[in-house]
Amino acid sequence: MKPYLREKSAFSFEEIPEKTCFEAGYLVTKNSGWRRARPVIDKDKCVMCLQCYLYCPDGVISESDNNICIDYDFCKGCGICGKICKAGAIKMEAEV
Amino acid sequence: MSVTAKNLSREEFFYGHKACPGCGGSLAVRNALKVLGKNAVAVLPAGCMSAVGFNFPQLCFGNNAIISTFAGTASMLTGIEAALRIRGCDFTAVGFAGDGGTADIGIQALSGAIDRGDNIIYICYDNEAYMNTGIQKSGLTPFGAKTTTTPAGENIRGNIRPKKNMFEIAAAHGIPYAATATVGYMTDFLNKVEKASRIKGTKYIHVIAPCPSGWGIPESDTVEVAREIVDCGLWYLAEFYEGEFKVTHTPKEFTSVENYLKKQGRFKHLTAEDIKIIESSRDKKWEKIRKEWV
Ligand SMILES: Cc1ncc(C[n+]2csc(CCOP(=O)(O)OP(=O)(O)O)c2C)c(N)n1
Ligand code: SF4
Ligand code: SF4
Fold first, then answer.
1. What's the complex ipTM?
2. Which residues of A touch B22 (CB under 8 A)?
3. Which atom of ligand 3 lies closest to the CA of B52?
């Protein structure tokens, strides 16, 4: 489980909560627009050590079926994963 | 069993947040919550992590989380712990406060909670200044660092005061568990969080969390710099448990302090003499550590 993107972003005045409580993990905007470079994984070089997953501040790297996946909706392109990868499997490519 | 990248919970509880790219504080919060799980109830005072986590309707915590007053992280944890305990809930009360929110403005509430022995985990993510309001000096800003309130110019060269020793201040209360950590050595940090979650009473963890904007480093270098601060001896990884101090990682040989400092914009102005002062205070600290701690 993780917080996920909702369809709805605008709220009418009546729907705005009067108390300070609201549903946890409620996302309405992406962070992809912040990115100047995107991490790209070379599957042949990846040794599945999961260090990129461990050190991503945004938690957007995950593992499925023995592959590393990146959620580009929320990756900010900081480049930490590229530096941490000892196998040299992550390259940062400029966003165009 | 110790926490590793492989066995760490795959769930994410701090997601879609608006922290700057490469923010060390967000890395600490994200992973600590993965260790504590969905029943963690998080308290965040004013500071970057609350500012980037709660922007209605973008609410980035997947677990229960609340913003406290700036000074009141620990007192709100006390209240939450008491209320949920009485209601028979299964939970962990955890606070995430910045260095300003911990060593300056929140120290009284924290001291009170430790004194009462409240069953809470208090994590200070230390980015060494008040970052959310634009880099002002806190009690945890190190000697020599340039901030907007400790400028570097002709007459003074950055902060003239040493960093407050929060870890030993917490320990001096006779706290059940206190530890230091860095986001550069993640599994060390996460195992300390895990250990804290098994101990009853108040737990204090102090984790170094570089801020690329405030430290003047590239956003990709957060982890590297967070390792180097330990490797060069300016920070140490330690625990205080059952009344004893213990170092959890001893560098065989220190790497260069100058290299660590000079790659950061906030230390660029330091002279050779300033660096000598920093090195000799490091050596003095380590002499004491080696003599008195196990
Ligand atoms: C009582 C009070 N004083 C001042 C502020 C303004 N303020 C909000 S965040 C912040 C800085 C927090 O610094 P720190 O605790 O170090 O956390 P960081 O922002 O570095 O994560 C300040 C001064 C406030 N919200 N409440
Ligand atoms: S570039 Fe940064 S945010 Fe994107 S996947 Fe890598 S570490 Fe995560
Ligand atoms: S200013 Fe620093 S601490 Fe605040 S979100 Fe940005 S990188 Fe993180």
1. 0.97
2. 57, 76, 78-80
3. 5
Fold for domain A37-96?
A: Alpha-Beta Plaits (3.30.70)
Size of interface A-B (CB pairs under 8 A): 115
Buried b (16+ CB within 10 A) or exposed e, A41-60: beeeebeebbbbbbbbbbbb
User: Closest residue of A to B9, CA-based?
Assistant: A1
Tell me the per-residue pLDDT of B5-55, one tens digit each, with 9 for 90 and over: 999 999 999 999 999 999 999 999 999 999 999 999 999 999 999 999 999
CA distance A78 to chain B (A): 5
pLDDT category, A20, cuts 50, 70, 90?
A: confident
Per-residue model confidence as pLDDT tens digits over A69-96: 999 999 999 999 999 999 999 999 999 8
The domains of chain B are located at: 24-292
Do B212 and B22 form a contact (C-beta atoms < 8 A)? yes
Q: In which element (H, E) is residue B41 found?
A: strand B40-44
Atom of ligand 2 nearest to the CA of A79: 1
**What length is written for chain B?**
294
Does the CB atom of residue B99 touch ligand 1 within 6 A?
A: yes
Q: Give me ligand 2 centre to Cα A76, in Å.
A: 6
Q: Which of A12, A58, A68, A71 to mutate to test the interface with B (most CBs of B within 10 A)?
A: A58
- B101 alpha carbon – ligand 1 mean position (Å): 7
Report the topology of domain B24-292.
Rossmann fold (3.40.50)
Structure tokens at B110: 């924290």
According to DSSP H, which parts of A5-93 are helical?
A: 51-55, 80-84
Specify the pTM. 0.98
Give the position, in ligand 1's atom list, of the atom nearest the Cα of B140.
Answer: 16
CB B13 within 8 A of CB B113: no
